Amino acid sequence: MKPGFSSKYPFRLPSWAIRLACRQQKPIQVARDRMRFVIQLALTNVTSKTGGPFGAAVFETTTGRLVSIGINLVAATNCSLAHAEMVALANAQQLVGHFDLGAAGLPKLELVTSCEPCAMCYGAIPWSGVRKVLCGARARDASAIGFDEGPKPSGWVMALKKRGIAVSRDLCRDEAVAVFQRYKEAGGDIYNAGKGS
Amino acid sequence: MKPGFSSKYPFRLPSWAIRLACRQQKPIQVARDRMRFVIQLALTNVTSKTGGPFGAAVFETTTGRLVSIGINLVAATNCSLAHAEMVALANAQQLVGHFDLGAAGLPKLELVTSCEPCAMCYGAIPWSGVRKVLCGARARDASAIGFDEGPKPSGWVMALKKRGIAVSRDLCRDEAVAVFQRYKEAGGDIYNAGKGS
What are the Cα distances from residue B10, in Å, to B65, B82, B93, B95? Predict the structure, then answer.
């Protein structure tokens, strides 16, 4: 599979993100280093003022090869669906040419995300076909700077495991949280909905 | 707001869907008739073989004016995110030019869906800004023909209500379920993920 970082559909990435992904030719062997890569995406999204403090990527689990990346693009694209995880999953599916990242013939794929998924991204994971999810910050770390992470059931890790999807949490959590803090200090938009209520 | 049925981003609609939406110039006053409109979308998606047996739309609650439509496009677009509700929400946001359909200055907007949301679409609703959700079939009706509707918490209606989003269920449920049956009888694809496991 060739990296699909210039994928135009459904979520367009800013040029800095495409450049950063294209530079990552070398497989990333260690899980913590995969997490540091997505935290770097989150940080650059903040410093480039292209979106919220979240980054994600799809990797081949065994080889560590980068398949696709995602960053939060909600405000930039006027689309509340455009969370980092959703962008990474959708772009990976475009690349492999299948809506099921767990389809026969594909290597085992995993989602690496700088923050535990919100209720929407959590619900998207079983449909996506990834076999594993690695999370950095906790949802409550995102809530602490004002994001409404949504009504996710407390037993979500077990519910994914029951569907054959392994979950690993708290990888480089402090580094992921540091990006949230930087976003908050920079006065970044907390793009919860219903602001007109 | 002018209807945005030709919106190319992020989800492209087939031409029959754009035509069907463009013909619906007249506001739809009665909730059951709004539901019948989205069930018609679901049915035409099946008979046109463009996707799964699900339809959705965003309406202005007070006037009944149609804002955007959505149909299931998972297989057609190679994107597991492309559920009818997600397509309708994303296209409505493109149209109004804001990721928050509850933003100041917008009329009150509602999501009408031929089936109760799955775990992903449920999680997407609070981020979207809609103030109301009308559902046709139950999630268990979709499960009955083989779809994995995902790990949605049992108290989901109350969880949305707590966020100021009203939920109405079982509108024209039998008519919505009839479309599922038709899809099943036609041998329609049940596009759950992990088929390669």
Answer: 22, 9, 10, 11
| Statement: the pTM of the whole predicted model exceeds 0.90 | yes
Question: What are the tokens at B130?
Answer: 């809609």
Is A85 part of the annotated catalytic residue set?
Answer: yes
In order of their start, the domains of chain A are: 15-185 (3.40.140.10)
Q: Residues of A numbered 22-51 whose beta carbons fall under 8 angstroms of chain B's beta carbons: which are they?
A: none
Pairwise CB contact (< 8 Å): A99 & B77:
yes
| CA B184 to chain CA mean position, Å | 19
State how far residue B4 is from chain A, nearest Cα, in angstroms.
14
To the nearest whole number, what is the mean pLDDT of chain B?
92
* Cβ–Cβ < 8 Å for B154, A129: no
Alpha-carbon B127 to chain mean position: 15
> One of B85, B110, B149, B175 is an active-site residue; which one?
B85
Give me the residue from B101, B123, B153 closest to A118, CB to CB.
B123
Closest alpha carbon to B85 in B109, B56, B128, B63: B56
Catalytic residue among A60, A85, A116, A185: A85
Distance from CA of A169 to the nearest CA of B (A): 19
For B14-51, how does the pLDDT look when each residue is reduced to its tens digit (9 = 90+)?
Answer: 999 999 999 998 999 999 999 999 999 999 999 999 99
Residue B104 CB-half CA count within 13 A = 1
Find, among A70, A165, A149, the residue nearest to A114 by Cα: A70
What is the percentage of chain A residues whose pLDDT exceeds 70? 93
Distance CA B91, CA B132 (A): 17
Strands A66-71 and A55-60 come out as antiparallel
E-strand ranges in chain A read 55-60, 66-71, 109-115, 132-137, 166-168
Query: Is A105's CB within 8 Å of B196's CB?
Result: yes
- What angle, 0 to 180 degrees and rounded to 10, lies between the N-to-C axes of helices B31-47 and B15-23? 160
A89 inside 8 A of chain B by CB: yes
Helix axes A84-96, A119-128, angle to 10 degrees: 20
- Least confident interval from A146-155, B63-72, B81-90, B130-139: A146-155
Is any Cβ of chain B less than 8 angstroms from the Cβ of A192? yes
Report ipTM for this prediction. 0.94
